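Continuing the batch. This is chain 6 of the set; chains 1 through 5 are on the previous pages. Same settings as before, nothing changed between runs. Recording input and output for traceability.
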Amino acid sequence: MNTTIALAGNPNSGKTTLFNELTGARQHVGNYPGVTVEKKTGAYAVKELKMNIVDLPGTYSLSAYSLEEVVTRDFLVQEKPETVVNIIDASNLERNLYLTLQFMELGIPVCIALNMMDVAEKRGIEIDIKKLSNLLGVPIIPTVARNGKGKKELMAAAANIIKNHTIPSPLDISYGDDIDSALAEMEPLISNATFLTQTYPARWIALKYLENDEQVQSLGDAKSPGISAKLKKITDRVSSHISNTLNTYPEAVIADHRYGYIRSIIRQDVITYQQDQSRLRMSDKIDQVVTNRFAGPLIMIAIIFGLYQFTFTYSEMPVEWLGSFFGWLGSVAESTLPDGLIKSLIISGIIDGVGGVLGFVPLIMFMFFGIALLEDSGYLARVAFMLDRVFRMFGLHGSSVMAFIVSGGIAGGCAVPGVMATRTLKSPKERLATLLTVPFMNCGAKLPVFVLLIAAFFAENEAMMMLIITFIAWGGALLAAKFLRMTVIKGESTPFVMELPPYRLPTFKGLAIHTWERTWQYIKKAGTVILGISIILWAMMTFPGLPENQTQGFDQQRQTLLAAASSTIIEEIKTAEEDTKISESAQQLSDKLVAVDRVEAETALKQSIAGRIGTAMESVTQLAGFDWRTNIALVGGFAAKEVVVSTLGTAYSLGEVDPEEIGSLSDVLANDPGWNPLVAFSLIIFTIFYAPCFVTVVCIAREAGSWKWGAFSMVFNTVIAFILSIAVYQIGSIIL
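Output for chain 6:
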């Protein structure tokens, strides 16, 4: 049986020395078709398997920047050797593994010859080969090419790959939000161009476009100019964005993340230095402190607490200003619009509903600014690296950490990109467990709910409460993952490798752009999705209205009160302006009339479509401390979590009559007899864990390949949320 294998590696890695040791006098020299780069071929036999060995030109990467790189890449994709023996210098592991990653991204079967082991030992470098092999998922054989040590074991490993017909899946590396989003957009376009995907994996082609690889772009232009033009448009957009935010370009970002991926491998105790390392880079020196097993977690907690303290402290005044603005807007609408459904819709449905969500824009903006600072500096990747050991204890993959963080693992993310981020997980079961638990994170949609309740009942310890909520979300997600991995999604955990990009000093322009982009998404959602849902829920809380006999009954109560009062008192109430002091008798009559109006409004709300739904649920939800108004809000929250706040605003607005008396929604809840800190905390727990928003459910179903997992997520999450809320409320009621 004849097969072809390729020898590849960096220049000066000992590749040619190993080739000569393997082939001896049986080599001959030829030329690659159409070019003048010399190639060497030889033969090696392992039992009945005869291997034709091709010595490729030495190269540092597979980018089309040099003739050697083009020749090497063309041979790999056109001749398709059964395996590539990648020779790497053991004394310079980081630089040499860069080429290895590119082979793996191409989906080529790879066997690594860890060469120059004698040189590495002289330099005091010890390599845990077994761990390195497990992390990379490829066989690694230590060799010393100049004396032939390890060559038999190396060729036996290569023969084993060939006999087993091992075809690995292309390696997926996360390159950060900007690059990953572009890749996700480009891959479906490339998949439609079969002439490309027959040669290269779709993701790899997308990377080449982002790296401005002229050879791949020319191929695309020739075969499918329409698709190629779309890919170039995406590339230009991403390049411009990265240039504006990070002052760099996609090629550099991709290279940084590849080297970060390699560093994360090396730092998992793969290399032990017996000699003093006096030339550590600045990133490594910082990481020695911030990723330390003991100091690292404490620093992480301090940083997250500082983020919350910064957010609540500096956003307090802008939030008050915006709240006052919407209060003023409601007063203007109240005084200028004629009574009727239109007035009710504008004040209760739009201003009090959507305004309740938009009122938190300053806080959201400050939170996003802090997250952008941590993300652009490279610290969030270190958080993921530190949490890997914890995640493995709960049956998740280390790469799940980034999906959790993207979903709002600290605060302010979104579950949808978090769900999409699970694509980097190779194990289907680890991926599914991550899909089902990322919605537990504190996404930007849940933040308004938390902030509303914290402001009303825990105002003295806002930052600490947010930190506690963050720990509850993470702890609940990990415990749920452990439960799923022990029951419906059993399976072994796989090794973890994650890129650690170098530390960067974020630019103010980049921070501003990232902050505004995310804040604008929040505002846009409030002005479109939340507005639409608020109007629908307003209609459900308004119609069908009170029957005529009940309306007449309330009118009769008012007439009775007015009939019993003197004309002087009635005239005094009618002519009194705001802040005008009236007599005690007039004040008593006014209070009684307002009380009748309030009872009528609340009765109408309770007998509306939404009110009846909320009341019907109350017999069960009261176990968790939720009344019928809260039930309406939580039902709306199935569409989007921000709706919980907007619906509460609408519900309490419709249940009142005088906007001047309402104040902020936080004040209303704080002064409502049905609310207290225990009820608020129970609602916080429920909001953390109950069903993801509808868009996230759709994404889960799409990524999992079945709607049953989307439905499972809704039911499983809501059941967990309700059980925990009942436990909190009932136990709290007993204690307090």
